[in-house]
Amino acid sequence: MDGKALSGEGAQGVSKTVFVHNELGLHARPAAKLAQAAQQYQSQITLEYDDMVADAKSILDILSLAAGRGASLTLRCTGEDAGKAAESLEALFGGEMF
After folding, report:
1. Which of 16, 64, 86, 87 sits at 20 to 30 Å (Cα–Cα) from 5?
2. Nearest Cα to 18, choosing from 79, 66, 78, 89?
3. Is 66 helix (H, G, I), strand (E, B) or coil?
């Protein structure tokens, strides 16, 4: 997994590349789990896939990405707890559900 610091006006940000391993892709159950986990953080959290950007705190936004098995997503977290959020959410993608 690749981690990069983001630059901005005083904003603390982290960018990580995560992969979808589930044979069904990023479907409803993992999208719900991801959104619930993201909602625990104050940071702005997005997922990027192809040319689309989704709010990781929204199940519908995540599902709209239609990310299939093997998809490479960019996880971006910006805010005071961005590092913790990125680590926690990145770990989810290492589990069986994702």
Report:
1. 64
2. 89
3. coil
Is the CB of residue 52 less than 8 Å from the CB of residue 34?
no
Task: Please confirm, yes or no, whether 21 is among the known catalytic residues.
Answer: no
- Active-site residue (options: 21, 27, 33, 84): 27
In angstroms, the CA 51 to CA 98 distance is 21
DSSP character at residue 34: H
Closest CA to 87 of 48, 53, 37: 37
The model carries a pTM of: 0.86
* Each residue's pLDDT tens digit, 7-40: 443 468 999 999 999 999 999 999 999 999 999 9
What type of residue sits at position 60? L
Cα–Cα distance, 24 to 12 (Å, whole number): 34
3-state secondary structure (DSSP) of residue 88: helix
